[in-house]
Amino acid sequence: MTSATVGAVDWAKARLVTVVTVEYRFLPDHLTFRHGVAYQLHVVNRGKELHELTASGFFKTVELRNPGVLNREQTELVLRPGEQKNLYFVAKRPGHYDMRCADHDWAGMTGDITVK
Question: What pTM did the predictor assign?
Answer without folding.
Answer: 0.91
